[in-house]
Known about the structure:
GO terms for molecular function: aldehyde dehydrogenase (NAD+) activity. The protein is α/β, with parallel strands linked by helices.
Amino acid sequence: MDAIPPNRQGRALVLGASGGIGGEVARQMRDAGWHVRALRRGGAAGTDAPRARPDDGIEWLDGDALSPEAVLHAAHGCAVIVHAVNPPGYRRWARFVLPMIDNTLAAASAVGATVVLPGTIYNYGPDAFALLREDSPQRPLTRKGAIRVEMERRMQAASARGIVVRAGDFFGPRVGNSWFAQGLVKPGAPVQVVREPGTRGVGHAWSYVPDVARTMLELIARRDALPPFATFHLAGHWDADGTQIVEAICRVARCHGLEPQRKRFPWAIVRAVSPFVTTLRELMEMRYLWREPLQLDNTRLVAELGREPHTPLDEAIETTLMGLGCLGHERMQKAA
């Protein structure tokens, strides 16, 4: 894979750098020579003292993405703002997501920065399936999907430049809030059971987070040549019959001496409990994404970059399982 040339004069703000995709983008930008700045919740806006993670090569500022002042302060001197932040907990998601993107867009307009947003498939309803293109109609079935559509609409209407990089369901070694980590396997324990949330024969799109982050970096490097608002889709790992990801997990686990069982995801239990648990209600709303084939067309991305960054499936699965503590070695290393 070709190296991204260092940009030692570039400064970027990553909102959500303590999360899965935001953290991966922040680390890759740092390694590519960017000066990366990140906000950390829990401190006063505009406080510069880096109390946590002082040696990770990232400049951490205290502040909250819900504070316009904190975001504007952090964005000073930045050429790029990566908006990969979500409020903690589903209960406050609908209330705070749009104010946070508004703060980012206002700061970007003030400092002349490009906003980069990790997009999701939640924007689409079944009328856009089975192959999602950048110009496919966005008529989501869920509240969360409607909010994602509005986020992108506001980006397009803003004076700041914007790039949306859309991918399938995320998985990766540091991605805990995902279908992979919360639905297929149990983090922190060797793989004993792998759950299958989809219907066999129904394809599904997955994306390895380091590949998504790499794609974002390469598009950021070309930002001046892109349209003022540009959207790109990643094909990622296309599970054509809905079984290949589960089979890969089992295959990798067997290479590490494990013999996991395959079981169906307990949708009936989730449905019964969902009226009382917000997270499970969200899962039920998103079930339609598992009932019909859903694939992303990366033609526009390949035309721009020449190819899509892509890690082989088994390598991506093994790294993910190791990162989630699902192969057993991690616990032995800690014990030693």
